[in-house]
Write a structure and sequence with these properties.
mainly alpha
């Protein structure tokens, strides 16, 4: 049986690797992306509501004028 601590260690390492690879491929810092997204959710008052955040992210994918759309990301996040 795997302990909770071991589970966390494995899970966090896998997630970190995925984020690192995504950042390398895009040239955009995952930390900047997270902060930009989080600040947007807080300003909208939906940071406590997972469903509302998912709807906001879905809307951002379809609307290129949305602040979270990839065309509108802040340039300081690029490496």
């Amino acid at each position: 049986m795997i302990t909770f601590r071991s589970f966390l260690d494995v899970t966090l390492n896998e997630d970190t690797e995925l984020l690192t690879e995504a950042g390398k491929a895009s040239g955009y810092s995952d930390e900047h992306a997270f902060v930009h997204t989080w600040n947007h959710m807080v300003k909208k008052g939906i940071a406590h509501d997972k469903e509302a955040m998912h709807k906001e992210l879905d809307a951002a994918q379809k609307d290129d004028t949305h602040p979270l759309h990839h065309k509108n990301i802040p340039s300081e996040g690029f490496k």
